[in-house]
Design brief:
five-stranded parallel β-sheet; 47% helix; alpha/beta; 12 strands; 636 residues; seven-stranded parallel β-sheet
Length: 636
C-alpha cells in the first residue's frame, strides 16, 4: 500500500480498514508483535479526534502489549487520548478492577492526573488490607477533595478501641473539611462520579455504634453538592397522575435483586407476595445475569417483564440524569429502597425525589441521613420507640417482623464436608461459630473473645474471610488478619480457624457442625441468626442500643423461649459466662436447642409481615393523597 493510497481520500478509508483487519487477524492468531505494527500504521494516520471515534484501534493496540505482558505500556496506550471515549474508559476501569494490586501503585505514579485510578486503587487495596500502598500517593491527587475522601478510607476492621476511635475522629475531621468546602456558594457543573464504583465514604463508619444521624446527614449533604445530577425533584412527586387501574404504583429498588444477597433474602418474600390487585409492582436493579437460585428466579418472575427497570452501572456513572429521568417517567406513587448504604448506585439515586413517598428499611440497618427518604420501616420486636433519635427518617415500627423470610432447607449430613477433619479440630474441641462478614466485627467484641478463649483452651472459633481470588482474599488475607489479632490474642490465636466465603449450601453445612453460635456486638447478625435458629443452634447475643445489634434479641422474644439461662445477655462478662455454660452443660444446651427447633418456624414465612406491609403502604399513600387533595381544594 503506497503513500498515494493514504493521500487519496477515496482510498484512505479502504487502506486504513485493511490495516485494521490485518491487525485483528494477527491478534486472533496470537501474533501480537506483528499486529502491533499494523495498528501503529493506523494510529499514525489518524488524528486525535479520529482515534476517539475509532477507539477500538487504541484498545487493540494496548491489548497486544498486554498479551505480551507489557502491562504498563498497555495502560499508557489506553490512556494516551486527550479525551477518552466512554466505552474505552469503561473498558479500562473493568481491566483495573481485576488488575494485580502490585501494579496499581506504579500506575498511580505513571498517571497522577487520572482521578478514577486513585478511587479504583483505593477500593482494591482496601479489600486486601494494603492501603499503605495508597497512603503515600494521596497527596498527588489532583484535587483536595479527592485527598480528603481517600484519607478517610481505612482498614475494614480494628482490633482495639483506641484504633477505632482514632479512625472515627479522623474520618469526622475529613468529613468536616468536605462540608466546609461545599458550603455556601460551592457549585460544580459536573458530577464527581468516579466515586460511584468505590466503597462509599461512610460505609465503614456506619458499622460503628458511634456513627450518628449527624454523620449520615453531613455526608448526604456533601453528596448533594458534588453530584448535582442526583439532586433532582420530579414534577410528578407533587401531583400524582391518576392510574386507570386504581392501583398504588410502587417501585422496589434492590441493586442486588438478581442474586442471593442478604437484602434479597430479607425482602424478596414481601415483594413477591404483596397483593398485585392493590399494587402495581416494579423492580429496579442493576443489569446483570440472574443467579440460578429459586428465590431469585421467583422474585424476577413475580414482576411482569415490562415492570423491570435495569440500571446499567456504566450509564449511571456517565449519564445519571438519563437513568433518573427514565425512572421519573414511571410516575411512582411509592419507592421502597430495600437498602441504603451498601450499594453506591442506590444510595446516590435516593437523593432524587422520584416519588411523593420514599421509604427505606433494614437492608442496611442504619439511618440513611438522606432528606428525600421519608420513612424507615422497622419492627417493634427490634426497636423501642425512643430509637427514633437514631434516624433522620420517620420511624415506622411494625408489629410484625417486617420480613417474609424464606424457609431454609436443613442440609444433609455430609461426611465429605467434615469441618473437624478439614480444619484439624480435635474431637474434644468445642466449635464456636461467628460466620459474619469480617468488617462487622468490632474491637469491643474482639476484646471479649480474647477473654473467652483464654478461659477455655478447647474452644475453636470459626471466622469468615473473603474468598481467595487471583488478587485478594484467602491465605494472604488470613495472614494479615492473624498478624493483627496476634497482638490481642497472643498464643490463643491458635484457637482461631479461618474459613473463606463459600456457597450457601456449604455455609449451612458449617453452621450445622458448630456446637454454638455467638453474635458479634455491637453490630450483630440477622440472616446468620435466622439460619442458625433454623438449624436448631443457640446464638449468644449481647444486644446493642441500635437496630444492627438487636435482631437476634427480637427473634428470641418472638419465639417466646423459656430457659434457665437466658442466651440474651447484658454484659461482656455475662456473654463469656453464658457461652461457657452452654458449651459445658450438655443437658441445658440440648433443652434450649429443642426449644429453638420447636418454635423457630414462627420466624419464617410470616404472613403478618405481608399484611402489615400492604396496610402500611396503603395508609401512607392514602394519607398523602388526602393531604394533596385537601391542599388542592384549599387552593381552588
Amino acid at each position: 500500500m503506497s503513500d498515494s493510497d493514504i493521500q487519496d481520500p477515496e482510498k484512505r478509508q479502504d487502506t486504513l480498514s485493511e490495516w485494521c483487519l490485518k491487525g485483528h487477524n494477527l491478534y486472533q492468531e496470537g501474533k501480537y508483535r506483528e499486529a502491533i505494527k499494523s495498528y501503529r500504521l493506523v494510529e499514525k494516520e489518524l488524528t486525535q479526534e479520529e482515534l476517539a471515534d475509532n477507539w477500538i484501534v487504541i484498545k487493540q493496540l494496548g491489548m497486544c502489549e498486554y498479551k505480551l505482558n507489557h502491562r504498563k505500556q498497555a495502560y499508557k496506550i489506553w490512556m494516551s487520548l486527550e479525551q477518552n471515549p466512554v466505552d474505552l474508559f469503561v473498558f479500562v476501569t473493568e481491566k483495573l478492577q481485576s488488575e494485580s494490586t502490585l501494579l496499581l501503585p506504579e500506575l498511580m505514579d505513571l498517571f497522577p492526573k487520572y482521578r478514577f485510578l486513585y478511587y479504583i486503587s483505593a477500593d482494591r487495596l482496601l479489600k486486601v488490607e494494603n492501603l499503605e500502598m495508597l497512603e503515600s500517593r494521596v497527596e498527588k491527587c489532583p484535587h483536595p477533595f479527592d485527598q480528603w475522601f481517600l484519607k478517610g478510607i481505612n482498614s475494614l476492621f480494628f482490633t482495639t478501641s483506641r484504633d477505632k476511635n482514632n479512625y472515627l475522629d479522623r474520618w469526622r475531621e475529613l468529613l468536616n473539611k468536605m462540608v466546609q468546602y461545599t458550603h455556601h456558594d460551592f457549585q460544580t457543573q459536573r458530577d464527581l462520579m468516579e466515586m460511584c464504583f468505590t466503597s462509599l465514604f461512610h460505609f465503614h463508619p456506619s458499622y460503628f455504634e458511634e456513627f450518628s444521624v449527624i454523620d449520615a446527614q453531613n455526608w448526604s449533604g456533601v453528596v448533594r453538592k458534588i453530584y448535582p445530577s442526583v439532586d433532582y425533584i420530579s414534577s410528578q412527586s407533587v401531583a400524582r397522575s391518576d392510574n386507570s387501574n386504581n392501583k398504588i404504583k410502587i417501585g422496589f429498588v434492590n441493586c442486588f435483586a438478581n442474586r442471593l444477597h442478604s437484602v434479597t433474602r430479607d425482602r424478596a418474600g414481601i415483594i413477591v407476595n404483596i397483593d398485585e390487585n392493590r399494587f402495581d409492582k416494579h423492580l429496579i436493579y442493576l443489569d446483570g445475569p440472574v443467579q440460578d437460585i429459586d428465590l431469585v428466579k421467583g422474585l424476577m418472575s413475580s414482576i411482569s417483564k415490562e415492570n423491570h427497570h435495569k440500571i446499567i452501572p456504566e450509564e449511571f456513572l456517565f449519564q445519571p440524569q438519563n437513568v433518573i429521568e427514565r425512572l421519573d417517567k414511571c410516575n411512582f406513587d411509592i419507592l421502597v429502597y430495600c437498602e441504603l448504604g451498601m450499594n453506591p448506585i442506590s444510595y446516590f439515586l435516593a437523593h432524587s425525589r422520584l416519588a411523593p413517598i420514599q421509604i427505606t428499611t433494614w437492608g442496611h440497618s442504619v439511618t440513611s441521613g438522606i432528606s428525600t427518604i421519608d420513612y424507615y420501616i422497622t419492627s417493634k420486636w427490634f426497636e423501642p420507640e425512643e430509637n427514633q433519635k437514631f434516624y433522620s427518617e420517620k420511624l415506622v415500627r411494625m408489629n410484625s417482623l417486617t420480613t417474609y423470610y424464606p424457609t431454609i432447607t436443613i442440609p444433609n449430613d455430609n461426611q465429605d464436608f467434615n469441618i473437624r477433619n478439614r480444619l484439624k479440630i480435635p474431637q474434644d474441641g468445642k466449635i464456636v461459630g461467628c460466620m459474619q462478614s469480617y468488617f462487622k466485627l468490632q474491637p469491643e467484641w474482639f476484646e471479649t473473645i480474647a477473654n473467652l478463649l483464654s478461659q477455655d483452651k478447647d474452644i475453636i472459633l470459626l471466622l469468615q474471610i473473603p474468598k481467595s481470588s487471583e488478587n485478594q482474599g484467602g491465605s494472604g488475607f488470613e495472614k494479615k488478619y492473624k498478624n493483627r489479632l496476634k497482638t490481642l490474642l497472643d498464643e490463643n490465636i491458635s484457637q482461631i480457624r479461618f474459613l473463606e466465603s463459600m456457597d450457601y449450601r456449604s455455609y449451612l453445612q458449617v453452621l450445622s457442625q458448630c456446637d454454638i453460635m455467638i453474635d458479634p456486638f455491637p453490630f450483630g447478625g440477622c440472616n446468620t441468626s435466622l439460619e442458625a435458629f433454623r438449624l436448631g443452634k443457640i446464638v449468644i447475643t449481647l444486644p446493642g442500643k441500635k437496630l444492627p445489634g438487636r435482631f437476634t434479641q427480637g427473634f428470641y422474644q418472638k419465639m417466646n423461649i423459656s430457659t434457665t439461662r437466658n442466651p440474651i445477655v447484658c454484659s461482656s462478662s455475662e456473654y463469656i459466662e453464658t457461652t461457657l455454660f452452654y458449651l459445658n452443660n450438655k443437658e441445658n444446651k440440648e433443652y434450649l436447642e429443642s426449644q429453638i427447633k420447636e418454635k423457630c418456624q414462627i420466624l419464617f414465612l410470616e404472613q403478618d409481615s405481608i399484611t402489615e406491609w400492604e396496610d402500611t403502604l396503603t395508609k401512607l399513600f392514602n394519607d398523602y393523597d388526602n393531604t394533596r387533595k385537601g391542599n388542592s381544594n384549599n387552593t381552588t
